[in-house]
User: Fold these one by one.
Assistant:
Number 1:
Amino acid sequence: MSLTWYLANIFYDAIGLILDSLASYAGDRPGSMKQLMSIGFWPGGGDRDGNPFGDTDVTRDVARKLCNLIVSCYHINVRELKRRFSFAGVFAELETLQFRLHQELSGDPATPIAVAEMLELLQKIERIVAEKYQGLFVGRLHSLRRKLSVFGLHFASLDIRQDSRVIKSTLDTILAAHQQLLTANFASLPETDQIERLLQIKGSVQAEELSDPIVLDTLRSLHVIREIQLANGEAGCHRCIISNCSGVMDIVRLIALFRLTGWDMEKLSVDIIPLFESIRDLNNAGKHMARLYAFQDYRQHLRRRANQQTSKPANHYAGILRWHQGRRLSDGELGDLSGEGRSHGSVAYRQRGSGILRWARRAARQRGRQYLRILCRARQEDRE
């Protein structure tokens, strides 16, 4: 079965049930669950680190597939709601929403559907049900609204990943062809000065000017991020991962490429994620990030991103427990568990070895079984 099958048939329902369960305890506060849960979609055309099949065309197709998939899920959800809400004034509004979703699935409508439009229609229906029909079945409308807030039109965020050496090669190729972009003595400057120059680099480079296919695709991938954000929303593709990141220069080179491909630094709606992989880089991850934060241009970018910075050693451990449920951890992931103890120094992360691995696996299995039980129970209730 494909990954998209699991998204539509497992994750859509399971995450919806988790959000409903949390809302029943914490109350239904609009927008409070928007960032509570999200899905990242790494392998679907965004991974370019040694992947010969990952290019901009595949990335674009996967983003379109994810959008169609989530719209299809909404369409099925609305169709099921119509069976419950046969009330005057409500059924017609649901038919309007279903028609708009059908238009989106059928092709390019004159006016593409937007999340705000769907939320507005749902809120209108909720008001009618609350005022005229004593709020009957209104919880089902709330459930769909929560899913809309979390999944939007993107369903899962596509992560773009490229090796730091390819990013360096791409920038070197551009600078060799456009020497006017930087001063002639750039290579002899101290690294701190080089970083400042790259953070403030100005110019425009067309991908078609380059002949190397890898360099060409690297530049095009930065353009396709903007395309996906316009079609699926910012959450559709907002993370750029640097594999084998060894320091600040690798991060800054990617920012320079964004600037050279037409991105305004003040409107750069992308999170740069360094992936520290070697033991040496893991040990120095804290120093690298502290040094990066010292540069004012990057600090301003981070403020515009709500002061949130993701680095792979910092969050990969949590990712194992969240999304790797139901399968064994790979050797690379086990290495991350040991490396994170050295880079972060927390007591929990220091507990390397079989104890923490057994605990992680056991927790993942238990959580997976809990989600399955919730899902099966809900489906049984629907059948009844």
Number 2:
Amino acid sequence: MAIRQDTQNNLRIANVNPHKYATPLIPTSFAKLLLYKGFYDYVKLKGVDVGQPLELDVLVDGTVLTGSGLSSSTAFVCSSTIAIMAAFGVNFPKKEIAQLTCECEGYIGTQSGGMDQVISVMAKTGCADLIDFNPICTQLPAGGTFVIAHSLAESQKAVTAATNYNNRAFECHLPSIVLSIKLGMKPREEILNLKTLSDVEGLCLSFASVHKSSDPVLAIKEFLKEEPYTAEEIEKIIDENLTSIFSNNPIYLNVIKAAEHYKLHQEEMLKKLGDLMNESHYSCSFLYECSCSELEELVNICRKNGAIGARLTGAGWGGCVVALVKECIASQFILDLKERFYQFRVDKGDISKNDLDLYVFASKPSSGAAIFKL
């Protein structure tokens, strides 16, 4: 995203592809409205004097396909936030920028947990970050590369959030509250501040210990039923109206816990990483139920053609698969995917053969957002 001050009292936003995206010319007075929930209000809240909103020219370009599960909306939000920050001549720590952009994305309609924003802003070249909001940079083992392949099932989070992404987050939030009550947690304020099942893991372990077990799942089997709960059942258990509980509480998810560090050789490390990816996909597909038929087909094709590990990425219900393959076979692996998954879609006319490189490509971790002054 390129940005500069304008002298015509307008906010002008353009894309390098004008045939796909219109170029609006917005008077400054309306620009103030656009900035209402964004950066301008944020810096005023922080006590930074930036004067009146600047008239800006903004040019946007990008190669991340929308709805692909590769954080295209986060890339846009982070880029625009940092660009406007630069235009105003102020600076904030990366941690604050990640938090701000996470809050901004909420106004789009997605209850983002913050991982996409953290990695977009704080990533380091060549490193995979384990993000549980105590980021740990881990050097990737040599000899491997990641191949990104689009399932061609587009997942528009802002459109389907209520029935998919946000709904699943809500469904994971509720059991933690139900379990805490069943296991005797008090006071009420602590119960309502619970975010995930990990917050009641200690209670589950205590329950298991009483029953001469070390398995925290014992409490889940005892107190939670497999069938869906109705709103009335939940309200009866918690003795509280659901609307009042969740109206002001953000929903955060920690889907994958930290894996124990093994001092392994490079081949073994790649195998371990691939296994973790496969286990994660199983969890997403069969436990969290956020996969789809196209993703399942693509994951299976990846594994049959040499992937060490493969899993869906992004929010799910469509978008891309990320596959870990040995660097030496990456080119052939991509050709195999084009033949075994994409060629059928080309023959059907769903996509153009000339666009295949947009849908499947190799990638390695790179650095996060940065400002270049020209």
